[in-house]
Amino acid sequence: MGTLAARRMLCNQYTTPHCVGEGKETFLYATSQGLPAGSVVYGTGRSSVHGDEVDRLRASFEREIAAFNARDLETLMSNQHEHVVALNPTSPTPVDGKAARRHAYQTAFAATESVTVTPQHPQFRVVDNTGIVWGEYTVTTKPKDKPPTTSTVRFTRTYVKSDGQWRLVLYHVSPLPAPPQ
After folding, report:
1. Can you give the pTM of this predicted structure?
2. CA 173/CA 157 separation, integer angstroms
């Protein structure tokens, strides 16, 4: 296999010319940077193109999780885009818009003593002005009149850069499929 083919294999999971990954080796598929088609720039650490944005996205996500766990509705809502849509197993229809999302949080907080979300190895990606976070959460819920329950779910959160801030625009959570028997 030629060098170019091997380099492209590193980027095969990305569909844009901005090919950014994290791990031991960060890479950037750099045609958009004025380099010849097929050029790949290697380095250690994060790409200088999107590394800072990945850090900002991570900080926004962590701030949102901390606000949820603390029931800090104002901080939680400050991270939401006006047109946020949430798809989750507790609602039979999408929760569409910031006002509806606020109401859903208020209802959930009123029905529980506590809800604690613990992300498990979240992954972060920035593509242009879109941020994507995905992974699994452990969710411990203590209803007011029942014993606590703990479950693990998978999630996807899509953010858009708006007024210089990462704002949540789409949230999806679903139960993990049962392991094969």
Report:
1. 0.71
2. 9
pLDDT tens-digit series, residues 132-157:
999 999 999 999 999 999 999 999 99
Number of domains in the chain: 2
Question: Do residue 77 and residue 33 come from a single domain?
Answer: no
Q: Hey, what amino acid is at 103? A: H
**Edge-first strand listing for the sheet containing 95-96:** 95-96, 80-87, 165-175, 149-162, 130-143, 112-127
Q: Find the domain containing 136 and state its range.
A: 51-175
Cα–Cα distance for residue pair 161/181, rounded to 1 Å = 43
R_g over Cα of the chain: 19
- Same-domain check for residues 36 and 62: no
